Amino acid sequence: MYQKTLEDLEADHREKLILDLRSAEEFAKETYPSAKNLYWEEFEEHLQELPKDRPVYLLCYTGQKSGELAEEYEELGYEIYSIEGGFRAYTREKLKKLMEDEKERGNRAADIERSIIKKFRKEIWRKFTKAINEYELIKDGDKIAVCISGGKDSMLMAKLFQELLRHGKKNFDLVFLVMNPGYNEINYQTIVKNAELLNVPITVFSTEIFDAVADIEDSPCYLCARMRRGYLYSRAKELGCNKIALGHHFDDVIETILMGMLYGAQIQTMMPKLHSTNFEGMELIRPMYLIREEDIIHWAEYNKLHFIQCACRFTEHCASCGGTEKGSKRAEVKELIRELVKGNPSVEKNIFRSVENVNLNMVIEYKKDGVRHHFLDAY
Predict the structure, then answer these.
(1) Which domains, from first to last, does the chain contain?
(2) 167 pLDDT band (50/70/90 cuts)?
(3) For 9-25, what is the mean pLDDT?
(4) 180 phi, psi to nearest 5 deg
(5) Which residues share a beta bridge with 283?
(6) Spatial separation of the C-alpha atoms in residues 311 and 265, rounded to whole Å
(7) Predicted TM-score (pTM) above 0.90
(8) What is the dihedral of CA 372, 376, 377, 379, to 10 degrees?
(9) Which of left, alpha, beta for 304 (phi over 0: left; psi -120 to 50: alpha)?
(10) Mean pLDDT computed over 105-132
């Protein structure tokens, strides 16, 4: 039987030859995967090149020419088949699959969005809106650049902003901004595919930050972070935004407080919002400020989502293997907090509240707006 369907072709796992009999111009536009081009009028000239030790599948535009050739040459001892419906059938099946994939993607995106409002309402949604209200992060007329690095935190933040825009007062506008500082292709494609899956319409721009800091030996991470922040501010301002949103969460805040004390000899915190010192009229906001990292991880795992773990060029191999911050000061502090919590579950909240309950009468010296104040000044 010289007629075969596309399903038959895909089910045939033997080594085979697939010939597209359409013109070179049509072939160049699109063809069946792994097919080779041989125009039907030149078929007889290349008959000796046809293998007799493996099957040959012919694909024309409608299946008519391929059917005639397959019927003729089957009688000469070739295992040769015509694909029913030809390239038209292939494009119909491809379109059908694309529509099915789009529907499945839409259903999954809807489930993920629903989980934020339903299952994780208390742990994530309410804390997101609480931070926005308590710290006055959004005002009427704001245009916010939601900065997406590709990790779990920024991707969740993007979905939270979408939900807020959908269910809130709609008094602000959003841009979902992705900077590519030199990611490898796997990391970059992971970000793009996750954005497609989550229905987040990203705006991408490229920089060469990773190359710029590659040879820096003294504090390359600090320089990289500063450069990334500057590029984000600059592009956001070009797009008409007055704010950038970063995905730092509750655990980032308390770790920063302890790191400042233990390694920087200072008491300070990661603020929920800041005025930019270099970009006039721009602000930085952190709407994930009250959300625990464990709840973000739970949300990602519940929805079977996989994000890049590490954005840095020098540790980017972490992206596909669940990378960690092992060896870093932040990792040390994270582990310290974990140990302290075993003895006192209130430790994390107490660290957070410590910078809300500063008693200046019990501080030897403090600095405000660059001016130092000593307790002896008013003793």
Answers:
(1) 3-93 (3.40.250.10), 119-366 (3.40.50.620)
(2) confident
(3) 93
(4) -100, 100
(5) 243, 275
(6) 28
(7) no
(8) 140
(9) left
(10) 93
